[in-house]
Amino acid sequence: MASSPFFSRRKPRLLVVTPNKGHLALLARRLGEEGYAIAAAADGAGALGELHRAAVDLVLAELVMTPMSGPELTRAIRGHAAFANLPIMLLAGRAEPAPAVRAYAAGADDVMLKPFHFELLVARVERRLAAARQLASLQADKEALDARAALKAIEIGELKDRMVRLEAERWRVGA
User: Fold this and answer.
1) CB 34 within 8 A of CB 76
2) Quick one: angle between helices 21-33 and 118-174, nearest 10?
3) Would residue 149 count as lying in a domain?
4) Which residue range forms the structural domain that includes residue 38?
5) What is the pLDDT of residues 145-165, one digit of tens each?
């Protein structure tokens, strides 16, 4: 099981999930040309397996898939604590709002309607990756602050104990 190490120097790894082999090949080629490492899965089960095999920085999946839809895949990913903040973008083939609303309700970060300009997809992927890096940085800062606060609490406890001992000694000597 691997979650995304957002600060590594490797190129971002995108997991592309679509049952359409032609669409998968096109996305993999074009995104690869943009400098992304690509992992691929034909369905939700394959995507979940790939998430546990190697670090992924963003999931790009079809909204409509079988047997597991994009929103179902999103809920499954969000159900794993290690992947709770992994950016998820879904591609929708319809202009109807209901599927996109279901995707957002399931926890998707973005929904793009087809057809789309590839440059727009890349821009949105970059924005999601940047937001994920910022979140990871904030979480690391919070953990560091929590550790410092715990150390200070221990120090305060030790100082209280010392003060109690000194106060007891003062009363014993003064009595």
Assistant:
1) no
2) 70
3) no
4) 13-136
5) 888 888 888 988 898 989 999
